[in-house]
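# step 3/5: fold
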Amino acid sequence: MSSPKLQDLLNLHDQAYTPQGIQLSLGDSYLYKKNPVFKNIRDEFYKSGFKYTDKDFCHYAVLPYASLNAILKEKKVPYFDNVTVLKEIEAKHPGRFTCNDIIKVKPNYTLHESSHCVVDHFLKDVQLNDTTLPAEGKVAFKLVMAEAFANTVETLANLFNDSIEQRLFYELGSYAIHTKKVNQMLQQATDVLGPKLTFHLVYVSYLYSNCLFPEPNNKAVNYILDLLIPDEATRKKAMDSQSVRKLFNHAFELSLDFRLQTTGFYCAFSGLNTDINQLLNIDINAIYTKTPHIKNLLKNFEPIFTT
């Protein structure tokens, strides 16, 4: 499959102009127009009072993991101009380069960071006093709830990468980019569950993953499907579907060491002193069945994935 010409990609970028897009982030407006999950997150981002800035006020270029607290406090997400240099190259050598000829420019992971902003706006008033979690455990679980949401957004937004150009743009705006095989599995699972339940399933899978659980066996997945899917016929189809099971387990493809390092660093950076394994020893099933918090989050954000 031939690689798109740089000039064609830049033309698509310019033609997709929209005030809601970041004009100096390659393909941002194009994704806003073509990807409904991307668009819905962007609209919620603005509605929640956040904005984008080309000023790296929080050392984002050096250590993004240490930048989130500053981003949430200042209500600003940094981005980098990755358009101007490409336009200069194209102006100097018109039509010469394809995308394969050019080393990848610096990406802007605005979808992930914007998702954090949106979910933090929702979670800031959530209290977990009806759980058995200790004080630091409550803080940690809210961090996990937020990260699971950002992971879910990036996973489900992949469904709309239906062209080479859209996939190229998406790679510059998201940490998670699927292979064709993974996207087929995601589509097959969505065909069984529908968009709403697919969102529920993926979100809960990332809750478990970010709490450092090992990949669940079939019995554990059955239990979770039983919790999440009230309709008996749909539940049976889900339990019989290998795609649904694979989708749940997809959240565990990041190595446990990587999850431990990233989650552990952020918890420590946020001032939590409890050992990470003890901190994340959380009974997610009990929180789901005995408190409203996970269900409320799912209900609140369903429109992101269903409209």
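# step 4/5: annotate
Strands lie at 51-53, 76-78.
# step 5/5: archive (pending)
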